[in-house]
Amino acid sequence: IGSHTVTQRDLTSLDEKSIKEELEKSKLTLEKQDFNVKSLSIPYGKYNQEIKGIAKNYYESVRPSDWGLNRLDKIDKYNLKSFWLTNSTPLEEIKSWVDEAENNNGWAIIMVHHVRTNLSREYATHPNDIIQIIEYIKDKGIEVKTVSEVLEQCG
Question: How far is the C-alpha of 134 from the C-alpha of 119, rounded, in Å?
């Protein structure tokens, strides 16, 4: 479980004090529920150096919405890249992300936002598609790990 701020506002539109409140309160709220919170997912992916500097005080990693594969030999844990699913992402494209990671010493973070049968929202993914993705990864023998597990492995 990672933080996603308290109010899911665009952090780049906030002053330093408000950014700190968003990050700290989100982390504390989750920790009060016994979650060990080490990572932050940036709302709307809007991110800059100021937010990066503040986030380092609260989290061990940050994922904005920069598209792509993370190279395991040169990870920027405060700017983790990801692929995100939309209601129109073809299964073959998702498989290509997995294959790219496998073939290039990479780590594919696949961002899933709404898992539901109603695909009216852009970032909705049908549960059957999630099952097919998991089966593809499993059939290839690829290990699925949490963000913390990968970052600990990379040192």
Answer: 19
